[in-house]
Amino acid sequence: MKFPTPFTLKQIADIIGTPYVGPADFPVTGMNEIHVVEAGDIVFVDHPKYYGKALESKATVILIDKEVDCPNGKALLVSKDPFNDFNALSRFFRPFAKADGPLAKTATIGENSVVQPNVFIGNHVVIGKDCLIHANVVLNDHTVLGDRVIVHAGSVLGGDAFYYKNRPSGHDKLLSAGRVVIEDDVEIGALCTIDKGIGGDTTIGAGTKLDNQVHVGHDTRIGKKCLIASQTGIAGCVVIEDEVILWGQVGTNSGITIGKKAVVMGQTGVTKSVKGGTSYFGTPVEKSREKLKQLALLKQLPELLRRLEDK
């Protein structure tokens, strides 16, 4: 999420009541999750395993629970609880706003777009031209649809990220302050769920088509002209490049990349990043030709064992 105007390091520190390391007027322009941060962003880290990743990331302000050497060109916010303080910043910059009806006054709907009955359109939602939104769709706050987008019945765009911190008292939720952005000519099937980003955008590229019952996790970026079949579950912070095909019941790990024009066969678990232009199958994921050879050899095992027993 980019702030409406740049803030200074001291202003941010005053909001959450933490000491800081760096110039008081150090510019801060946004906040985001570690996989998708950009220069000017705040990122939080509260585990030694990820200190190095956060300090070396593109983020220029690190909200951290330990005093460490500050990298050149960056600043620190030293917090007793970075997770809670990151949530405090989300509440400050994007507070929850109660709906004033099924169609928010701040929403905009483009020319020739059709909205069927029982649709909820939240605050600051943008719907482009010539769209068709079927019955019982939910477009939560700050969702953006391009032109000629079709969303089928019962889909929910802009739900919260599934992101929790395990504490002795239970699971604390990381608030979602990002958006869902759907580009032109996308079709989203019935009963799909697309989570908004933690601080950035969950994006579906132009011309991509989603079947029914597809889930897309927070901060995931799906490229142009992809095809994603029913009951596929895409985790958070995944990058799916252009013209990828995911067949039914594919599941992915978070933070991976699926290369351009890859084809992932049904019921595959994509456990790692895979290159484009190739077909994949199985769990853990492998090139489909190799996996099918392995399965063919497995079928021969009973016969091989019988021959050994006969000797």
Can you tell me the CATH superfamily of the largest domain?
A: Hexapeptide repeat proteins
Which geometry do the CA atoms define?
A: globular
N→C terminal distance: 70 Å
How many domains is the backbone divided into? 2
What's the average pLDDT? 95
Unreliable spans are none
The major β-sheet equals:
10 strands, mixed
CATH fold type of the largest domain: UDP N-Acetylglucosamine Acyltransferase, domain 1
Give me the oligomer status. single chain
Strand residue percentage:
25-35%
Q: What's the architecture of the largest domain in CATH terms? A: 3 Solenoid
Helix content: 10-25%
Task: Give the number of helices.
Answer: 5
- Which sequence of strands runs across the widest sheet? 8-11-14-19-22-25-28-31-33-34
Q: State the CATH class of the largest domain.
A: Mainly Beta
Summing up helix and strand content along with how strands pair, one would put the structural category as alpha/beta
- Radius of gyration in whole Å, from Cα? 23 Å
> Care to count the β-strands?
34
Q: Brief overview, please?
A:
The protein has 2 domains: 2-93, Udp-n-acetylmuramoylalanyl-d-glutamate--2,6- Diaminopimelate Ligase, Chain: A, domain 1 (3-Layer(aba) Sandwich), CATH 3.40.1390.10; 108-293, Hexapeptide repeat proteins (UDP N-Acetylglucosamine Acyltransferase, domain 1, 3 Solenoid).
Topology:
Layout: E1 2-8, H1 9-16, E2 20-21, E3 27-31, E4 41-45, H2 51-55, E5 61-64, E6 75-78, H3 82-93, E7 108-109, E8 114-115, E9 120-121, E10 126-127, E11 132-133, E12 138-139, E13 144-145, E14 150-151, E15 156-159, E16 164-167, E17 170-173, E18 179-182, E19 187-188, E20 193-195, E21 201-204, E22 209-210, E23 215-216, E24 221-222, E25 227-228, E26 233-234, E27 239-240, E28 245-246, E29 251-252, E30 257-258, E31 263-264, E32 269-270, E33 279-281, E34 286-287, H4 288-299, H5 301-310
Parallel strand pairs: 3-4, 4-5, 5-6, 7-10, 8-11, 9-12, 10-13, 11-14, 12-15, 13-18, 14-19, 15-20, 18-21, 19-22, 20-23, 21-24, 22-25, 23-26, 24-27, 25-28, 27-30, 28-31, 29-32, 31-33
Antiparallel strand pairs: 1-3, 2-6, 16-17, 33-34
